[in-house]
Design a protein that fits this description.
107 residues, alpha+beta, two-stranded antiparallel ribbon, 13% strand, flat
């Protein structure tokens, strides 16, 4: 470990991990807490398959990153619409209905 590296213990999915990096330990803990909250969101939306849940979590965080890089701001109404569509897609993935998707009515 170099002089500029810090270590911080974080909890993700009920397990403790030691994260090391050049960033401030408080910042690293904040990032881990954010990831953990996103994991918990996906756990509520998916059924017990941890691999699928973690992949969806990664995709959601990546989407947030791409949106932020593009400077896209989403209104609360748009966020709710995205949430409804995401939940519909998750239900289709869980029941194997992908490919038979019909767009939900907006409103």
């Amino acid at each position: 470990m170099t002089d500029s590296e810090s270590r911080v213990n974080v909890e993700l999915m009920g397990k403790t991990f030691t994260v090391k990096g050049d960033a401030d330990p408080q910042y690293m803990a904040q990032v881990a807490s954010y990831v953990n909250s996103k994991i918990h969101e996906m756990q509520r939306l998916t059924s017990g398959d941890n691999t699928k849940m973690l992949l969806l979590t990664a995709l959601n965080i990546a989407d947030e990153l791409f949106q932020a890089k593009r400077g896209v701001q989403v209104s609360p109404d748009e966020a709710q619409q995205i949430e409804r569509r995401t939940q519909a897609l998750l239900r289709m993935l869980e029941t194997g209905l992908v490919g038979q998707y019909t767009k939900p009515e907006l409103g």
